[in-house]
């Protein structure tokens, strides 16, 4: 059986190349796509993520507006910052880095972001639109997973897809997107009984659970497509890659799988939002 | 094995009895809960449904404001009516009867309803809130299904639930609600391969497909809970009741199952919305 190694870096490159002309077009109209990132507090991993996203913007000709707020920022203060960005015509996308300090109402803050600028796909309204089939900006990791499947011509229709995880920005929206592509979707989680037995039936397995090497080789049906959306400390995914490689017909590595495509989807959504703002 | 016949009329009665005091309280503050129903066109079944809902309101002390628009109403005209109701402090809930005539953008109309008055659970924003776990007014049939399970102490946690159907107001939201109650959820539909095989694994089966007697007795695992959310011409459900009765540990009939509870949830949501408006 030929084995397909799903190369996220290649998919990311193709997406980013596709943005070049669009960004030039926008700039010829004196519009520079702009992503505002909001970081609250001093969590070092969050700082790294935000910096990575900002750098990816700048490398691709997208303006990165970095807002760094102190840990003691209140929910009300954060909402004010978001509101200012909602009304700023130079800003096309807003990303609030998760997690915010515990005293802030994160859900309220997410839902304060205008759906038109919700390029990271965190609002509940945007989630509803995505799940009902007409969302503009699904969360970036689910969007990346669908893009990788599309790039490698892996059809979801009629397939049995098992999603492990049900977070608001990963497990739930990727379940919704797979369902909208006519997969039959099983959403699994920590309370699922007999998880291995369910995974063994899957044509497509999406690991989005946040536990290193959680998905075992013995769980994978021969010929299944294995998508690892996990990213744990030390660059380790949610899938035991070496163990699953033998069974899978196609598999994403970590790093170099879904990760780079996720950032590309964020850039793409920001350009989409800038174009939408121009034609409004 | 003792067989549980899930009696929707009884559940409905309990819900409606629970509303009496709350409605009296509201009236003592000079607030009468009010549901506005909008019917566009002359579809006889839709007329019947709207009348049924209006009568249920009146019987329970809830004001029913019936708005009947001609078939040739445009989307813009419908949006204006909805906007007026959104701003009318005497109106607590708005129900736009589905389906509207084909020339109207139904999704746009649904999404124009204020989430605070979306007691029928049709907006995409409300769906997103429900799916992410904090929705005030899930669609009434999914809410009714969860209420029947709760009433009969049937826990969803850890169970494998198979939902047949993925409509925006039934299959998708009931899948989301079951998932939030820690069931493992398989959402199935017309493109599902080997549906009977999946149903045979289910501890809870929800039929929401709109095809008379679609779910066969041979599909049901012994001891499964069978919920029939279908309602087809001639008072026929989506489940072959007689055939499934032998296998199931609990089952809802049609009529007298989920139907009456659905209307009760609409009344409850209207009272909820009136109370929320008072405390605002």
UniProtKB/TrEMBL annotation, chains A, B:
CDD domains: NAD_bind_m-THF_DH_Cyclohyd. Residues 139-276 form the Tetrahydrofolate dehydrogenase/cyclohydrolase NAD(P)-binding domain. NADP(+) binds at residues 165-167. Belongs to the tetrahydrofolate dehydrogenase/cyclohydrolase family. Homodimer. InterPro entries: Aminoacid_DH-like_N_sf (IPR046346), NAD(P)-bd_dom_sf (IPR036291), THF_DH/CycHdrlase (IPR000672), THF_DH/CycHdrlase_cat_dom (IPR020630), THF_DH/CycHdrlase_NAD-bd_dom (IPR020631). Its EC number is 1.5.1.5, 3.5.4.9. Keywords: Amino-acid biosynthesis, Histidine biosynthesis, Hydrolase, Methionine biosynthesis, Multifunctional enzyme, NADP, One-carbon metabolism, Oxidoreductase, Purine biosynthesis. It comes from Heyndrickxia acidicola. Residues 6-120 form the Tetrahydrofolate dehydrogenase/cyclohydrolase catalytic domain. Pathway: One-carbon metabolism; tetrahydrofolate interconversion. It comes from the Bacteria. This is Bifunctional protein FolD.
């Amino acid at each position: 059986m030929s084995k397909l190694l799903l190369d996220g870096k290649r998919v990311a490159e193709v997406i980013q190349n596709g943005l070049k002309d669009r960004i030039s077009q926008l700039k010829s109209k004196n519009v520079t796509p702009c992503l505002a990132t909001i970081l609250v507090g001093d969590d070092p991993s969050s700082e790294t993520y935000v910096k990575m996203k900002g750098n990816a913007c700048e490398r691709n000709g997208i303006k990165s507006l970095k807002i760094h707020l102190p840990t003691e920022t209140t929910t009300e203060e954060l909402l004010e910052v978001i509101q200012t960005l909602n009304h700023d015509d130079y800003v096309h996308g807003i990303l609030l880095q998760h997690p915010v300090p515990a005293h802030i109402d994160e859900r309220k803050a997410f839902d304060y972001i205008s759906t038109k600028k919700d390029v990271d796909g965190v609002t509940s309204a945007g989630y509803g639109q995505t799940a009902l089939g007409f969302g503009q900006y699904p969360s970036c990791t689910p969007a990346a997973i669908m893009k990788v499947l599309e790039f490698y011509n892996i059809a979801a229709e009629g397939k049995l897809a098992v999603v492990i995880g049900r977070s608001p920005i990963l497990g739930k929206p990727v379940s919704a997107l797979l369902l909208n592509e006519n997969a039959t979707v099983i959403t699994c989680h920590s309370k699922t009984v007999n998880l291995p037995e369910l995974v063994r039936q899957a044509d497509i397995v999406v690991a989005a659970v946040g536990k290193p090497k959680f998905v075992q080789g013995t769980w994978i049906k021969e010929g299944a497509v294995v998508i690892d959306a996990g990213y744990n400390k030390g660059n380790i995914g949610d899938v035991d890659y070496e163990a699953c490689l033998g069974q899978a017909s196609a598999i994403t590595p970590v790093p170099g799988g879904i990760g780079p495509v996720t950032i590309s989807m964020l850039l793409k959504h920001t350009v989409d939002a800038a174009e939408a703002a121009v034609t409004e």
